[in-house]
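the two lines:
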Amino acid sequence: MKKVLVVDDEPFILMIIEDKLTKAGYKVITKRTTTDIIDCIKSDKPDLLILDWVLPGKSGIDICNEIKQNPEISSIPIFMLTAKGHEADEELGFKCGVEHYITKPFSPKALLHLIEDMIGKP
Amino acid sequence: MNNKNNNNVEQLKKDLRLTVEELSDAYEEISLLYHLSQTFTGLTIDQICDILLDEVEKMLDVKTVAVMLRDEDKNEAYTAVSTGLWPSDMIFTKDDNIIWNNTEKNRTRIFNNIKDTPYGNLLPGINAIFICPLIGKQKSIGTIITGEKNSGEEFSSHDIKFLMAISSQAALAIENASLHQELENFFLGTVTAFVKAIESRTLWTYGHSERVTKYSIAIAHELGKDIHFIEKLRICALLHDIGKIATPIEILDKNGDLTNDESIELDQHSLTGSVILGDLKPFKDIIDGIRYHHEKWDGKGVHEKLKGKGIPLMARIISVADSFDAMTSDRPYRKKMSIDQAIKEIVKHSGRQFDPGIVKAFMKIKDSLLPFASNV
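prediction for all of em together
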């Protein structure tokens, strides 16, 4: 079963994504903080990371940079999820190796399709 | 006791699951409305109606959707777009039944079993309809009608909330687009009136600017130019001879060759035109199109002797259209040429007077221009 790690500090966003993906058959791990994301990726080996841009402590971009600089986990695809909707921000995200940039509010249905396209069906 | 607790926990879990499902649906809608409000900006009424229709059909999963708009002058509501069983030419007059009344009174109406009402024959084959007004800033501008869900279910409060939300967004966008359209029509009307006033000075050029506009737009379409370019080109072509307002009538009407001084005076019209419109700073490309429409591809034109692609595209297009119309129209000092002859002249001067790329496009569409040509 394919695994998706979702990191967002807004609980209802986590609930919505978890509900949608779980029903579609994915295993979903949710986190509200950035504390042990790197360890989690190493141990749970998720197939995809959905990451909020603005998080308490580190920013999503910081995490993204850390992941891409760590050869052990750098291959994980990342979707950046954020309310920032400016082109300049998108550029920054893509430079860090983000695969898709999803602006809130997003369509859970469309997100599911993007995930299926990226990592395949569960 | 344990069993009771377990049951409570199960119930809570179930409730939570349902709440999350509702939350997810609501979020889906918020996302759609948010993106639609951005998408609607700058679109035409038809485009807004098309998107509205698609989204409602998709979200509510219904058999029929129709967007009716009010025509205040005719006192009727007409079908702007529709799908499914709704006849695309359906119109309701003021005396007509529910559609007009609800449009008028800004009322939302749901008939889950319309057959049992006096409106049973409204749409044969459709059991349930949902009527939602499109309310603009001050008044209703129309209504959206959806007929029967594919699942056969009744319309829910969830459907109502969604349709009302999307309708109010669309209504504001339609209202804005309509104001924009009115302003644009007024602007174009003013420009056309202006052009007619200039052309009325001499019979020889009557209708010239409108024909040049038609030819220029046809060439631009062939070149694959977008709507924004074409709309600017329309204004530019309509106004390309505006500078002739300052050309003495004796020169415009002269029955014979122009003297050197007179030619220079006549040539001034493109510069004069750009000066007259000089204060319209946001329309620099239109002004340049007018200013340079007598430049030549080989750099041997009038005034600044711009060359090749250094001449703005609008000016290069108008140059071909202008010459074709001039050659196929009578002038006080000569008779018009035949269309075939004029086309040969255009081809002959391709690469010298005219941009070869424009001439190529002109040759592809020349037959479609014939009905408008002056000497047909």
